[in-house]
Amino acid sequence: MKVVEVLHMNGGNGDISYANNSLVQRSVILMTKPITDQAISDLYCSLFPETLCIADLGCSSGANTFLVVSEIVKIVEKERKKHNLQSPEFYFHFNDLPGNDFNTIFRSLGEFEQELKKQNGEGLGPCFFSGVAGSFYTRLFPSKSLHFVHSSYSLMWLSQVPNLIEKNKGNIYMASTSPPSVIKAYYKQYEKDFSIFLKYRSEELMKGGKMVLTFLGRESKDPSSKECCYIWELLSMALNELVLEGLIEEEKVDSFNIPQYTPSQGEVKYIVDKEGSFIINKLETTRVHWNNASNNIENINNDGYNVSRCMRVVAEPLLVSQFDPKLIDLVFQKYEEIVSECMAKEKTEFINVTVSMTNKK
């Protein structure tokens, strides 16, 4: 599986699109907003740039993409009015992998720009938008061309599935039953990827430029703890039920692994300090409950349905690269049942790690 070719959220505006099943991600953007607000405010007030270049990495599509833009513009406009300055020109780069639904973003742009002008008044400077297709584990922008980088719920995705020397039997992600070599391989891939990411962003950000990143993460020291791996463990259970029913080959489950790593605060700090390009200004953990997972009003009280839809829009493109697409509906029917049973018995939360940094170079 080549991650760069198959990893993307379900596009469009349909029932199983990311646009209609991304309330958790929206909640996290709003929950971490004070950190982003502080970073963009500090940046603007230290430079007062006439042009402000901003990149949103792993932008996906839908309302969350525009939420980030509108919040940043709002903060800058507030500060420039305080200082009685002319509004800067805004240049926003939307980045994601080539399979991302950029078309939906740009079809919605005209309506969004009108709303942006309405919210901020006639004095708002011109806003320019571009789509940048490519992996953020490569160089994406010219040297020293960016003022600010934002990324939310994207950087836990790895550039590739880790090279495993042992099979992760019965699992599709790290789990308590995974061999130690599997856990080690996952961390090794994450450390390599995040270090490369920091290096490239330090080259693209101007000196003093800011970056705010939010990962799906964990508080536990154990990378295979339930607080970060349980959501995938339950999907493994659904797939393994189909193995028992003879609908999926056991080997196909054993050879399929999710290219993701959910870091702790300590791991993020260690890698940032080791790579050396950035100063950490803020590093904190937040929590959001699994049940905050869908825009589907008809199923607002069906937690299993909502979480299943939320995960489907993320995992489906990966699953269809390995398993028969005709089985995907059945996989998520079983997953919904398993998740519902789990949520009725246990407290289920996503852990988020947010870091705000300044480029030294």
From TrEMBL:
Query: Where on the tree of life does the source sit, at the highest rank?
Result: Eukaryota
Alphabetically sorted, this entry's keywords are: Magnesium, Metal-binding, Methyltransferase, Transferase
Q: Which residues form a coiled coil?
A: none
Q: Give the GO biological process terms.
A: methylation
Q: Which InterPro entries match?
A: MeTrfase_7, MeTrfase_capping, SAM-dependent_MTases_sf
Species: Solanum pinnatisectum
* GO MF annotation list: metal ion binding; methyltransferase activity
What is this protein called in UniProt? Answer: SAMT
Q: Which family does it belong to?
A: Belongs to the methyltransferase superfamily. Type-7 methyltransferase family.
